[in-house]
Q: What sequence folds into this?
């Protein structure tokens, strides 16, 4: 599936005394009313509201969408410090840093942090994805000040206790050991590594056993100092809150945070086409599995690529829904797979176009041949105007469900700002979906699907698949 990635929620934050941290008090101070002129604003017709954006003097970006349906507020604190910033050879560092944020601050120990979260009746979680580390919170509007102040303390004043670092490091290793018994993560990680090598998406966010073993305590401190800065930080609020209230809270908590140096918010440069790889198949033998997991694909696009919406419509038709061509032909008509889908992993950097499926091992060769045939047809044969229209209607019908809760809105606001899509996104999305034509869809397919340049990873009992390594194919143990 092709989709807009929003902030993810997983681990609850962590921390330790860090020389050089901001040491900003989490106490919220009152201030005078904020002039509305400080905000840029745009209508959000789908929910009859407006979205507001401003930037604090230190570079922190604030985006607010008032939605006073119930007395609840969801917020996100996003920092451009995801796994794409991991140093070479130390993948997993961003994830490990995020996992330590709730282990203590210069003001609070870990137990007090957990008790405060529990007492608020809300939630507070942290996760490091590829492009961003995100703190996600949700609470009654009457308790927002306390929980958001706590969240800001975790970001500004972590102390990263060394014993907790050692404990989380061992937990990360245990998680990676467990992944080896699951074909999905193994296939995905090998696919990305083969396609992107040392690029920002060439390693898993959780790292590898080898890279995790290289991480030292000082690496955590250095990563925090380098990447946790105000001009890399985005705050989003959605729910029972006004723009003025959000700005007062943002200034009281993050307003005194000083940049570590002369930095500006990283931008997503214009798309640069990555050279197509030579066709290659990697066979990873796992005799303990009865099924094979397959990922195949080629370099794709960034989220802000102008071809995105034509690619979105094209992919929905190809393999983005249960009624797509891949599903209809491979799964429903021929009964060859447990599931099959396609997608574009479009983020700040160009992720891949891919097809993923799981099948009974002896069916693997048949599915690979049939999938390549469907990809070739999609690349060379135009789809009908009626099929385009049906797909557009489905996408437009789904759009309101992306903004039907405060949590989804807060995550979407962070996504919009991270990928620099602009406050007009809420009208741009439906407008640009409607502008897709059979000609633009075919152009996107021809540009982005390359059946003769696919990197294919097969994980499972290779002898039972009937596949034999030859030529450029690589058999791995």
A:
């Amino acid at each position: 599936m092709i989709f807009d990635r929003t902030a993810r929620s997983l681990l609850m934050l962590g921390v330790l005394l860090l020389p050089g941290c901001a040491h900003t008090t989490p106490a919220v101070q009152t201030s005078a009313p904020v002039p509305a002129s400080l905000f840029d604003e745009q209508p959000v017709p789908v929910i009859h509201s407006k979205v507001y954006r401003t930037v604090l003097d230190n570079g922190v970006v604030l985006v607010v969408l008032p939605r006073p349906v119930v007395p609840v507020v969801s917020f996100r604190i996003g920092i451009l410090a995801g796994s794409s910033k991991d140093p070479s050879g130390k993948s997993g560092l961003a994830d490990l840093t995020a996992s330590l944020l709730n282990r203590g601050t210069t003001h609070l120990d870990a137990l007090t942090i957990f008790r405060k979260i529990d007492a608020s009746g809300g939630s507070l979680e942290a996760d490091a994805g590829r492009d961003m580390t995100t703190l996600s919170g949700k609470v009654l509007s009457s308790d927002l000040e306390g929980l958001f102040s706590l969240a800001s303390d975790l970001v500004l004043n972590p102390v990263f206790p060394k014993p907790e670092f050692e404990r989380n490091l061992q937990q990360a290793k245990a998680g990676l050991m467990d992944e080896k018994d699951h074909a999905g993560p193994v296939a995905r990680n090998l696919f990305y590594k083969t396609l992107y090598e040392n690029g920002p998406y060439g390693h898993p966010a959780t790292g590898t056993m080898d890279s995790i073993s290289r991480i030292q305590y000082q690496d955590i401190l250095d990563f925090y100092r380098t990447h946790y800065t105000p001009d890399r930080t985005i705050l989003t609020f959605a729910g029972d809150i006004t723009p003025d209230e959000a700005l007062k809270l943002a200034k009281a908590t993050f307003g005194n945070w000083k940049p570590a140096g002369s930095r500006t918010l990283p931008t997503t440069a214009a798309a640069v086409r990555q050279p197509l790889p030579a066709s290659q198949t990697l066979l990873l033998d796992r005799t303990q599995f009865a099924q094979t997991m397959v990922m195949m694909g080629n370099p794709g696009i960034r989220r802000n690529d102008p071809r995105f919406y034509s690619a979105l419509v094209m992919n929905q038709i190809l393999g983005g829904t249960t009624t797509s061509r891949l599903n209809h032909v491979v799964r429903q008509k021929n009964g060859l797979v447990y599931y099959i889908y396609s997608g574009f992993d479009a983020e700040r950097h160009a992720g891949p176009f891919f097809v993923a499926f799981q099948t009974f091992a002896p069916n693997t060769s048949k599915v690979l041949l049939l999938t390549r045939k469907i990809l070739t047809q999609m690349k060379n044969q135009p789809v009908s105007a009626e099929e385009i229209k049906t797909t557009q209607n489905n996408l437009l019908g789904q759009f309101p469900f992306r903004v039907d809760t405060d949590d989804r809105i807060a995550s979407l606001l962070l996504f919009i700002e991270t990928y620099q899509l602009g406050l007009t996104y809420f009208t741009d999305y439906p407008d640009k979906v409607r502008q897709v034509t059979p000609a633009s869809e075919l152009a996107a397919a021809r540009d982005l699907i390359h059946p003769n340049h696919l990197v294919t990873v097969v994980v499972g009992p290779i002898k039972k698949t009937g596949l034999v390594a030859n030529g450029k194919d690589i058999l791995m143990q």
Summary: The two ends are 30 Å apart (CA to CA). The mean pLDDT is 89. Residues 162-179 form the longest helix (18 residues).
